[in-house]
Design brief:
This protein is an alpha/beta fold and 298 residues long. 49% of the residues lie in helices and 12% in strands. It has an eight-stranded parallel β-barrel, surrounded by five helices.
C-alpha cells in the first residue's frame, strides 16, 4: 500500500507537567496536514513510544484518528519486542480506526532472522490492516536481512517497509526482491532524494515537521524529471535535516516546532531538552534556512 510520499513521524505533545497535551496534538495534526504531510505515523520512535504507556498510546491513536477525520492515513506504532503485546495493541488500534500499523524490529532480545519472520507474521495474521515493517539496526541492534523482508513481503497485508539502515545498496536489493506493489520508505531524512533515485517510494520523516513542503517539492521535481532543481532543494534543506539529529531525537525537532510557533512541549526522561549550545546551533540553522528560503522565493 502506498501511504503517500512524505509521511511524518509525529512528535507527541506534552504539557508543562509532562502529560499528553491533546489540544496541542490537534494543532500539530492540522499544521502537518497543511504543510506537506501525506500521512502521520503516531507513537513511533519520534513520538517517544518507549515512554508512552499502553493507555496513552490508545488515547493518542483515537484522538489523532478523530482529528485527522479521514484527510490522510494514520499509521499507529504498535510494534515492540513482545510479540503478544504487539498483537494486542495492534488489534486495539485497528478497532480505533487507524489505517495501518508500523512494526519495529524487536529490540534488546536480539531474535534470529527466523525469529523476526515469525514475530512479524504472527502480528500480521491477527489484523486486517496493512503492515509497514520498520528496520532500524542503529536502535534495535538487529538488522533484518533482505531475504527475511522478501519472505515477509509475500504475506498479503505486509505491504511496506521503513528502511533506516542508511544502506542504499540494501534499498535497491529490497526493491528488486519484493513485489512491485511493496512500498519502500526511507527512514533517513538526508537520504530522501538518493532513496528516490534507486526506486524508493518516499520518506518517513522527522524533518518534515519543519520542511514538509520543501520535501514535497523536492520529490515532485525529481518525479517530474527536473533532477537539477530537486538536487538544489536537497542541498538547501540538508543542513536543517542534519540539525534535527544533532542531539537525541526528538529533542531538536520539538525545540524547532516550539521556536516556529507550533507548541508541542518538551521531551520525557530519559531524553532531555537541548542545552544552550545545542539550542543556539539549532536557532542559527533555522534562521539561515529562512533567509535562504526567502532568497529562493525572491
Amino acid at each position: 500500500m502506498n501511504f503517500g510520499q512524505v509521511l511524518t513521524a509525529m512528535v507527541t505533545p506534552f504539557d508543562q507537567n509532562g502529560e499528553l497535551d491533546l489540544e496541542a496534538a490537534r494543532g500539530l495534526v492540522n499544521y502537518l496536514i497543511a504543510n506537506g504531510s501525506d500521512g502521520l505515523v503516531v507513537a513511533g520512535t519520534t513520538g517517544e513510544s518507549p515512554t508512552l504507556s499502553h493507555d496513552e498510546k490508545l488515547r493518542l491513536f483515537q484522538f489523532v484518528v478523530d482529528a485527522v477525520d479521514g484527510r490522510v492515513p494514520v499509521i499507529a506504532g504498535t510494534g515492540s519486542n513482545n510479540t503478544q503485546a504487539s498483537i494486542n495493541l495492534t488489534k486495539e488500534a485497528e478497532a480505533l480506526g487507524v489505517d495501518g500499523v508500523l512494526l519495529v524490529t524487536p529490540y534488546y532480545n536480539k531474535p534470529s532472522q527466523e525469529g523476526m519472520y515469525q514475530h512479524f507474521r504472527a502480528i500480521a495474521e491477527q489484523t486486517n490492516l496493512p503492515v509497514m515493517l520498520y528496520n532500524i539496526p542503529g536502535r534495535s541492534v538487529v538488522n533484518m536481512e533482505v531475504e527475511t523482508i522478501s519472505r515477509l513481503a509475500r504475506i498479503s497485508n505486509i505491504t511496506s517497509i521503513k528502511e533506516a539502515s542508511g544502506d542504499l545498496d540494501r534499498v535497491s536489493q529490497i526493491i528488486t526482491e519484493t513485489p512491485d506493489d511493496f512500498t519502500v520508505y526511507s527512514g533517513e531524512d538526508s537520504q530522501t532524494l538518493p532513496h528516490m533515485s534507486v526506486g524508493g517510494t518516499g520518506i518517513v520523516s522527522v524533518s518534515s515537521h519543519v520542511i514538509g513542503n520543501e520535501m514535497q517539492q523536492m520529490i515532485n521535481h525529481y518525479k517530474n524529471g527536473d533532477t537539477a532543481h530537486a538536487a538544489a532543494i536537497h542541498r538547501h534543506i540538508l543542513p536543517l535535516m542534519k540539525e534535527m539529529f544533532a542531539a537525541p531525537s526528538p529533542s531538536p525537532v520539538k525545540e524547532a516546532l516550539n521556536r516556529i510557533g507550533v507548541p508541542v512541549g518538551s521531551v520525557r526522561l530519559p531524553l532531555v531538552p537541548l542545552n544552550d549550545t545545542e539550542r543556539a546551533s539549532l536557532y542559527k540553522v533555522l534562521a539561515n534556512h529562512q533567509v535562504g528560503s526567502d532568497e529562493a522565493a525572491g
